[in-house]
Design brief:
The structure is a single chain. The chain has a domain at 119-388. It is 32% helix and 28% strand. The chain contains nine helices and nine strands. It has helices spanning 2-10, 25-39, 48-67, 75-85, 93-110, 318-328, 330-339, 345-362, 378-388; strands spanning 126-135, 145-157, 170-182, 194-204, 218-228, 241-255, 265-279, 288-302, 308-313. Strands 1-2-3-4-5-6-7-8-9 form a nine-stranded parallel β-sheet, with helices on both faces. Helix 7 packs antiparallel against helix 8. The longest helix is centred in the N-terminal third of the chain and has 20 residues, at 48-67.
Length: 389
């Protein structure tokens, strides 16, 4: 009896000087992943709406754990988790990628990220990560409310799929450097979502950014430089709205097909140093493209079509080329876009702010509602827009 009583008293008593090691936030996230993989695994192939709903349910689960103080993590913990899980096998890589999307979305929600509406100040959250050449399929899939995001040196399949989806979706800026793979960032910013700025530098692969900003989505500005691959930006802004797309140094077999078609609209298309077999097929078809700039286009089957108010070629409009490109600030946008490839996180996002501020000042000249109904020259169109500002 005395022995048993003594054991009871000793139960749970920790020797002096011995500390129980608490788990790190990274270990907690890995354990959470295991729980999510069990709880949200589906035996059937999910449709897009079902996949997005699953992400929302995972985010609710994360919110509940955080509310009950069973989980805490910050942007650096998420960065460490992504790098720890990259290049690793998963029984369900799509669910794993959706889980990372929920983790990112929850951080942005917790930071109060929102776009400026009715004069209210926007709320920011900045997140950057260097994958160091790692592979991560479906990374940040369906992340629905994102502030400023910078990704570099990643390879994958369907990374960023369905980001900023639906009318509540928001992405202030996305900067991509040295991204490779296939079908990345497809359907991003679609179904009524709002995307501010996308900058793409030195990327390669096939079927990237298809249906970006489609189906009532809106993308303000996209800058792409040094791209090698096929089917880039196909059906970009189909049934949606694009402020401007500016591209330079693209090598592709076929890309930019169906941009702003089917009641879509784009304010400006600028293309320079493009080598392709087929480009701009169905541009503005059953939609509208305000003005298109073309310089050094080596295209076997050029296919401008649909409704374009003005098509400006450097050779055909030599006298007006410098004037027009200066007014649209295309070279300044391209210069700033390349500056996002170097520097610290703060320096890159400072350049992002410079690009967005410049675009906001020029927004009237990218007005997608303008129609050149009287066949005015590109210079006359610009001067008329400046009067309307």
């Amino acid at each position: 009896m005395k022995v048993e009583l003594s054991l009871k008293k000793l139960k749970g008593i920790k020797p002096k000087g011995v500390k129980v090691k608490s788990k790190t936030n990274l270990e907690n996230l890995i354990e959470l992943e295991v729980e999510v993989m069990k709880r949200f695994k589906q035996s059937k192939l999910l449709k897009q709406d079902e996949g997005f709903l699953r992400m929302l349910n995972i985010k609710k689960f994360i919110r509940r754990l955080s509310r009950d103080k069973q989980l805490y993590y910050c942007d650096n913990d998420l960065r460490n988790y992504v790098l720890a899980r990259a290049n690793q096998e998963s029984e369900d890589p799509e669910l794993l990628g959706t889980f990372t999307g929920a983790l990112l979305s929850y951080l942005c929600d917790a930071a109060g990220v929102r776009r400026s509406i009715n004069g209210e100040p926007e709320k920011r959250f900045k997140f950057s990560i260097d994958g160091q050449g790692a592979k991560f399929d479906y990374l940040f899939k369906y992340a629905d409310n994102v502030g400023d995001l910078s990704l570099e040196n990643f390879t994958g399949f369907r990374m960023g799929y369905g980001m900023a989806l639906t009318k509540n979706g928001y992405l202030r800026s996305l900067v991509l450097n040295n991204i490779k793979g296939r079908s990345n960032f497809v359907r991003m910013g679609s179904q009524g979502a709002n995307v501010g700025l996308v900058v793409i530098n030195n990327c390669e692969g096939n079927n990237h950014f298809s249906f970006l900003g489609s189906k009532r989505g809106r993308v303000e500005l996209l800058i792409v430089q040094k791209f090698n691959g096929n089917n880039l930006l196909d059906y970009f802004g189909s049934e949606g709205i694009i402020g401007a797309v500016i591209g330079r140094n693209l090598t592709t077999d076929s890309s930019l097909m169906g941009v702003a078609n089917s009641d879509g609209a784009v304010g400006l298309v600028y293309a320079e140093n493009i080598k392709a077999n087929n480009i701009f097929a169905q541009l503005g078809s059953y939609g509208h493209a305000n003005i298109c700039f073309m310089k050094n286009i080596d295209c076997k089957y050029p296919a401008l079509g649909g409704s374009a108010s003005s098509v400006v070629s450097e050779k055909q409009h030599f006298d007006d080329w410098d004037y027009l490109t200066e007014k649209y600030c295309v070279n300044k946008f391209l210069e700033l876009g390349l500056q996002t490839t170097d520097g610290s996180e703060d320096e890159k996002f400072l350049v992002v702010d410079q690009i967005i501020n410049l675009y906001e000042k020029l927004k009237p000249v990218f007005d997608v509602s303008y129609r050149n109904r009287f066949n005015k020259s590109p210079r006359e169109v610009m001067e008329e827009k400046l009067k309307l500002d």
